[in-house]
Amino acid sequence: MHPGRCSLQVSNRCRQFRAGLAAWIALLLLTVTAHAAPAARPNVLFIAIDDLNDWTGCLGGHPQARTPNLDRLAASATLFTNTQCPAPWCNPSRTALLTGLRPSTTGIYHHQHIPWRKAELLKDAVTLPQYFRQHGYGVTGAGKVFHHANEAQDPASWDSYWPSQERCMPRDKPPAGKRPFCGAIIRDGEVDWAPLDRPKEEMADWQVAEHIAAQLKQPHDRPFFLACGFFRPHLPWFAPREYFDQFPLDQIVLPQVKLDDLDDVSPAARTAVRAGGAFAEVQKAGLWRNAVQAYLACTTFADDCLGHVLRTLDESPYAKNTIVVLWSDNGWHFGEKEHWEKVALWERATKCVLVVRAPGLAPGRAHAPVNLLDLYPTLLELAGLPAKPGLEGDSLVPWLREPSRVRARPSLSTFGPNNHALRSERWHFIRYANGDEELYDHWSDPNEWVNVAAQLQFAPVKAELAPWFPQTNAAPLYAASAMKTGRDSLIYLIGSPQQVK
Ligand SMILES: [Ca+2]
Ligand SMILES: [Ca+2]
Description:
alpha/beta, Alkaline Phosphatase, subunit A, nine-stranded mixed sheet, four-stranded antiparallel sheet, 17 strands, 16% strand
């Protein structure tokens, strides 16, 4: 055989073989591609706990806080230890988180700015759950996620809701007898608490947990976004007696307060807080310790509900392919700065809880300043959905990958028009609409006892942070005259709408 001819024949055969192989591989790939499911997107379990400050085991804000389920979640996730709310109040905080836009952009500053869809900018806004709906997710929820008129939950955002789109929580049966149960009338009876002689299964929050758990036990034919909103430890602090019994009254540790703490805050803030007056009422009634006990009890009850959901997730087929995010919408004062509740720009009111666990990412603790506004872009990136232009937060995925990363951008909280606070890793800088300022150094003063805003040596700190104050301060959805008087108008004592540019 002629070597050349032979070589030619081999070469031809090789070419035929290669061509056949290529065609076969192409066919195989085509077949595999045609039959394979599209890349599975992770599910999202989105958990809110109302009014939970840092009195948790993992954040260490109170030595007696007992939150074993939250702590376990935090240990398996990234715990953001310096999280600020967009606004220290349910409605503006949640509206900002769920629309991705600041209160100063939308004009939703107040508890009473509902329904928030009435704001021009939010009329056609696509909310976080709605965005997941638009991208093929099955989106459902139970409990308090949006703050809304009569607990309704913005039908555009959900495929379904429990108990219904009109009522986000089952009604808790009130305790027998007449309010107030705590022993005194505090803020016209709004501040109240009591241990209940009933099983936890009869509580609305437990029923929300039960509903979410049932969802996690079901088969799902597409990725899900499941929202779970717990109402406790929001007022009134009613919880089964077994939770109160875990915190014997004579052993309750009270928060550290400085008696003359308000002396160096701005006059407007001092007036506003004292006008609220609930802490003075609590003290006068001799019930400070009882109130702390009730809050700790309600927090442990909420944690128990959380545990029910997390255990069900862990035992489900979705354990490994579900992003878990847990957040609270604002902090709470218990007498620090003579203040009682949220609605202030100090750290006790603005610091909230944020935990994010994503498949494939190692647990860690991030101390960079972050904001609930960052959640919207974070969840889109984690789920592999297209980024949404116009959101005012930033994705936290870089901090989920590298928790020790430094962040230049401070975290913004807003309370009423043009009253803002910026939190960096070290500083908390508050500027009210009338120009009054407070500056606290968290490295030396974690309780925010010493306002150093007027000290010349810190002028450069303020100058560095100030450009982050928003340039836009939208007019409130409704005028202040439409507001109730008293505590609900505190927001305008500090920053009257007339002072807004
Ligand atoms: Ca709240
Ligand atoms: Ca002080």
